[in-house]
Amino acid sequence: MITKIFATIVIIFNIIFVIYLISPTPTLKPLPHSVLSTLPGDTTQLKNVTGYYTNLSRSEVMNFYQSLYSFPLLIRINHPPEKAKEIFRDTMQSYYIEEFIIPFKQSLFVNGYEWEKDVFTKPEKRIQFKLIYNNITYQSKINTKVYDTSIYIRLIVLFASEIGIYLIFWCYSRFFKKNGQ
Q1: 3-state secondary structure string, 69-133?
Q2: Which of 31, 103, 135, 150 has the highest Cβ tally under 10 A?
Q3: Model confidence over 80-112: pLDDT tens digits?
Q4: 3-state secondary structure of 21
Q5: 49-54 and 136-138 as β-strands: parallel, antiparallel, unpaired?
Q6: CA distance 82 to 114
């Protein structure tokens, strides 16, 4: 009886989780009120990277991406600016970097550089990093990078994890039966 209940729970869990894993991830839309950058490193040179020049504030940018990723299991992480050099490229300027994670499916990194708030440059020297693109001055530059996983990898990880958990429980049950506990 308990075995049938357990099997039913595992089957229901698998059905729900497989539907979750194969459901599509959000499509990344262009940042509104911004200009798409065509500079090297902001387009095809780096896979899944897009750059924008904008006058939107950090909260406006983050609210836009939060609205795209309105997902019940969404995890949002604020990383230190130094992490941008690991995620994007070693010459990336950064004032903030945040990550939106849809567990087991996708991560979106949003890097923002606001030249007037650059914490790594003294205030009197910040003017040299003023963001001018196509003869227009912008308050910030936003770079995004998406890390996707394929559906096949998602399903392999799910079923491999389940097999591993089953084997661990099986080993423990044999150990306790063998030792009389």
Answers
A1: CCCCCCEEEEECHHHHHHHCCCCCCCCEEEEEEECCCEEEEEEEEEHHHCCCCCHHHHHHHCEEE
A2: 31
A3: 988 988 888 877 888 999 999 999 899 999 999
A4: helix
A5: unpaired
A6: 15
